[in-house]
Amino acid sequence: MDLAFPVIVAPMAMQGMAHVGREVAAAHAAANAGIPYTLSTMSTSSQDEVAAAYPGGLLFQLYVIRNRVVVREWVQHAEALGYKALVVTVDAPRLGKREDDERNR
Predict the structure, then answer these.
(1) Which of the four pLDDT bands, split at 50, 70 and 90, describes residue 19?
(2) What is the DSSP string of the chain?
């Protein structure tokens, strides 16, 4: 992937909680700016929806979960849709103890 400008939109999960356009709108904006867009594994839009909004400039962020069959399906589907690269996330092998979340259950 050749970049005229060394910027890539980082993966951001659950954009649908912040904007009705979800990741589709963010990918469309990135496409208009000519900046590659990274779709989060934890997105509220499907790989297909985002690929339709930005053909050719997409990366897919991958959390490697225990179910390797699901991981393989995600990767193969992204490849079939034309995603250019994987952004493998290794920073969250365990979730932290989130006391506020526990209190709000």
Answers:
(1) confident
(2) ---SSS--BPP-TTGGGT-TTHHHHHHHHHHHHT--EEE-TT-SS-HHHHHHHSTT-EEEEEE--S-HHHHHHHHHHHHHHT--EEEEE-S-SS----HHHHHT-
Token duo for residue 26: 């963010």
Q: Residues 32-51: pLDDT tens digits?
A: 988 999 999 989 999 999 99
CB 55 within 8 A of CB 27: no
Q: Contact 38/11 with Cβ under 8 angstroms?
A: yes
Per-residue pLDDT, 3: 76
